[in-house]
C-alpha cells in the first residue's frame, strides 16, 4: 500500500540560497507527525511544497502514491491545509465560508450541506455559523481554519504553526481539537514549540537549517534528549560559589522565587548529591527537576547525533 505521504530528496532554493536540502520522510498512518524547527528552519517551505503552493527545485512528493505534476486535482483532493495566515474571508459568515471552501475543493454540490454540518460540529463552532468571521475571536477563527482544512475529509491535513498567536486558553482548546482531528486524519503539524510537539505528536521530524536532523517516534526523541540543566528551589538559597563548588556544576543562574538553574556537564548522581548537601547544610530544598533547556540546545544535541 502507498504511504499517505512520501517526501523524497526534497530541496528548494529561493533566488540563490537553499531553504531546504534533501528532505526525506514518510507518513503511513493517522495521528500527528510534528515538523519541529526553529524560525527559518524550513518548515513552511516544506509544507507549502507538499500542499502544492510552491514548486520545489528538486525532489518528489507523493500523497497516496499520486504526484502533483501527474494529477494536480487528484493530489489536492487528498490534502487539507491551514497555512500560518489562515485564508479566511472576513466578510463571510462561518457557514458561507465553509460552503465556499467546499466548492473550491470541487466537492459535489449535493454533499456540501452535510459536510458543512459535520465540520461545524467537529470543530465545535455550530453556534457561530451565522457570525461574520471578522467578529470572531482568534480561537474561533482558527477553528474555522481547521474546519475548512478537513471539509472534504482529506487523508492528510497540514497545519502550519496552528497555535501561533492564540492566548493560553485558546491554545489548550486548539490542541484538543487537533488531537481529535488526528484520530481520523494523518496530520502534519509544524511548530517551533518543543512542548507542543511533545504533547501532540507520535512521530517527530526535526529540521535545522533546511536539513532533517531527527526523524523517529516521540519516545525515541525523548530518549535522545538528555537534560542539561536542573531547576532547583531552596528556601535557604546558598550563594553562587557554594553551588559552583558542587562537582560537575558549571554555571548557576539565580532566579526569582528562591529558584536557581544549575547547568552541568554530567548528571552522574548530581541530583542525589544536591539533595544530600541540602540536607547537611539546611538549604531547605523544596523542588528539583531536570530540564531540557532551549531549542538551540536540542538542535545542537540532535545535530551532533544525527546529521551526516
Ligand atoms: N519567499 C522567500 N524568498 C526568499 N527566501 C525565503 C522565502 N521564504 C522563506 N525564505 C527563507 O527560507 C528559509 C526557510 O524559511 P521557512 O519560512 O520555510 O522557515 P520556517 O521554519 O517555516 O520558519 P518560521 O517558523 O519563521 O515560519 C529561511 O532562511 C527564510 O528566510
UniProtKB/TrEMBL annotation:
PROSITE patterns: ABC_TRANSPORTER_2 (PS50893). One of its GO terms (molecular function) is ATP hydrolysis activity. Keywords: ATP-binding, Nucleotide-binding, Transport. Residues 5-234 form the ABC transporter domain. The keyword Cytoplasm does not apply. Belongs to the ABC transporter superfamily. This is ABC-2 type transport system ATP-binding protein. It comes from Pseudobacter ginsenosidimutans.
Amino acid at each position: 500500500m502507498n504511504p499517505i505521504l512520501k517526501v523524497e530528496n526534497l530541496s528548494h532554493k529561493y533566488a540563490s540560497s537553499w531553504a531546504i536540502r534533501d528532505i526525506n520522510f514518510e507518513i503511513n498512518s493517522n495521528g500527528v507527525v510534528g515538523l519541529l524547527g526553529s524560525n527559518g528552519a524550513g518548515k513552511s517551505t516544506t509544507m507549502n511544497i507538499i500542499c502544492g503552493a510552491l514548486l520545489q527545485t528538486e525532489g518528489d512528493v507523493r500523497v497516496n502514491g499520486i504526484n502533483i505534476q501527474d494529477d494536480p486535482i487528484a493530489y489536492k483532493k487528498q490534502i487539507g491545509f491551514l497555512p500560518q495566515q489562515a485564508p479566511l474571508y472576513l466578510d463571510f459568515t462561518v457557514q458561507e465560508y465553509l460552503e465556499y471552501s467546499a466548492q473550491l475543493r470541487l466537492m459535489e454540490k449535493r454533499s456540501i450541506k452535510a459536510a458543512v454540518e459535520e465540520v461545524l460540529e467537529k470543530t465545535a463552532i455550530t453556534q457561530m455559523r451565522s457570525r461574520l468571521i471578522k467578529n470572531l475571536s482568534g480561537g474561533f477563527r482558527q477553528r474555522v481554519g481547521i474546519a475548512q482544512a478537513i471539509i472534504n475529509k482529506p487523508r492528510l491535513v497540514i497545519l502550519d504553526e496552528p497555535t501561533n498567536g492564540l492566548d493560553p486558553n485558546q491554545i489548550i482548546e486548539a490542541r484538543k481539537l487537533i488531537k481529535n482531528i488526528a484520530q481520523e486524519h494523518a496530520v502534519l503539524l509544524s511548530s517551533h514549540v518543543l512542548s507542543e510537539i511533545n504533547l501532540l505528536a507520535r512521530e517527530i521530524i526535526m529540521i535545522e537549517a533546511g536539513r532533517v536532523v531527527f526523524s523517529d517516534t516521540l519516545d525515541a526523541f525523548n530518549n535522545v534528549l538528555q537534560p542539561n540543566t536542573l531547576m532547583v528551589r531552596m528556601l535557604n538559597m546558598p550563594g553562587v560559589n557554594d553551588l559552583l563548588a558542587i562537582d560537575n556544576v558549571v554555571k548557576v543562574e539565580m532566579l526569582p522565587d528562591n529558584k536557581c538553574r544549575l547547568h552541568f556537564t554530567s548528571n552522574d548522581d548530581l541530583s542525589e548529591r544536591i539533595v544530600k548537601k541540602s540536607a547537611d547544610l539546611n538549604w531547605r530544598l523544596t523542588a528539583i527537576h531536570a530540564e531540557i533547556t532551549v531549542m538551540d540546545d536540542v538542535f545542537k544535541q540532535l545535530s551532533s547525533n544525527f546529521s551526516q
